[in-house]
Model the fold of this input.
Amino acid sequence: MSEPAIGPVICGYDGSRDARRAVAWAAGWARDHDAPLEVISADRAVGRVVQFDETARANVEGAMRDQLAELTYDVEARYRVVADSPVGALVEASRNASAVVVGSRGLTAREDFAMGSTSAGIVEHATCPVIVITPHAPETPPAGPVVLAADGSPSGEPAVAFAFAEAERRRTSLRAVHCVEVPRLPGASLFDLDRLAESVLAEDEKEITDALAPHEARHPEVSVDLVLVVGEPAVTIAEESRDAAVLVTGSRGHGGFAGMLLGSVSRRLLQKAPCAVIVVR
Done:
């Protein structure tokens, strides 16, 4: 039997610097995963024009191809203009995609915002993994480990599987980081808080180890480094990702309400991480 087809890597493009960086990453990801690339520019007004004028469509899509030729030259790429909002278009395209790649900000985002509303909407609603190229991410992924934000929760299982598969593909190690934030309880001494932290970490270590064990068995080539630390989760995990190729996280962990699409730690990692962040819902 033939191998199943790999869904395309989708990338949103609006002409901004962040979008160009996202296209470069998307082209590299498509190349490395032997997948086709689809670059989508979504605009209700422009999209409606090209719907009724094939010459206009050819001109707009040709301009996209020319602008991005140096970034996508060696990848099978398709360019599309869609009459929809960027979130709507990319979420719809995600249904058949293997990954969606977006910049953290586009043309409409203020410079003091670490993440634009378009990127946030795609992360929350896409049906495939979303790769966010954060402002601090390098132009190309370094040859470092795959870092996993590990919490042992059932909702994080797809992220664990993704991280192991990516580490094996890259022939690199996996660094699973679990962070416990100890509350500053009124009247508690520093000794009590330290003892509480040690107790919580000891309990969590078994939970995390048990969650990783089936994946270690399936990927025996992947060396796993489990990091257990006390601190503010997003800040600590970001610090542990300074040399990472990518950081993989679930959308929400133990603390997330069932109706929440993106947890607070995942959201802050998209703002603070020094590398590309992959959110696997």
